[in-house]
Amino acid sequence: MVSPKRLSLRHLRIIFISLLAVFMSVSITACVWLYFQAEKKCENAAALNRAVIEASSIADTLKAADGSFSRTARYMHGHRSTVISGNTLTLYYDSDMHPSSQSASSYTAHINRMKENGCIIFEITISENPGKNQIYNLEFMIPQKKGGS
């Protein structure tokens, strides 16, 4: 009877090294993929943080201006381009969330104004341009002054 050939120690080493190389390749690929995913999440978190700060600043300015878009636009120093259209105010920002012209903007803040039950309700929406992903949304209300705008 012929006995089955046993794998030599040399063959076992080659198989082990091959499996080790495959495992290391998969591990390195997974680490690189996770690194880029973490970097993307970090960028998204930074954009959200800047959007929250800017929306809060806009809200405070609207309150100081008693809800007037024209006064709000004047109080928002550094804005090169503001668009007031009816009950909507639009502000433009660059990639670092600094005031920007419309053509060079990376982010847009749309402020919508509605009147309801003696209050002025504002909705501030900050999104990527041109109106792609909404990054942050803030709603608040201020009491309407007697005989107010």
Structure description:
The chain is of the alpha+beta class and 149 residues long. It has helices at residues 9-64, 69-75; strands at residues 82-85, 88-93, 107-116, 119-128, 134-143.
Which features characterize this protein?
149 residues, five-stranded antiparallel beta sheet, single chain, 42% helix
Give a short synopsis of this structure.
This protein has helices at 9-64, 69-75; strands at residues 82-85, 88-93, 107-116, 119-128, 134-143.
Structural class: alpha+beta
Q: Which percent bin holds the helix content?
A: 40-55%
The number of helical runs is 2
How does the major sheet shape up? Answer: 5 strands, antiparallel
DSSP, total strands: 5
Percent of residues in β-strands: 25-35%
| Spatial sequence of strands, sheet with the most strands | 1-2-3-4-5
Shape: rod-shaped
Low-confidence stretches: none
Rg, rounded, reads 29 Å
Give the N-to-C terminal Cα separation.
104 Å
Q: List the helices and strands in order.
A: HHEEEEE
Please outline the helices and strands:
Blueprint: H1 9-64, H2 69-75, E1 82-85, E2 88-93, E3 107-116, E4 119-128, E5 134-143
Antiparallel strand pairs: 1-2, 2-3, 3-4, 4-5
Helix pairs in contact: 1-2
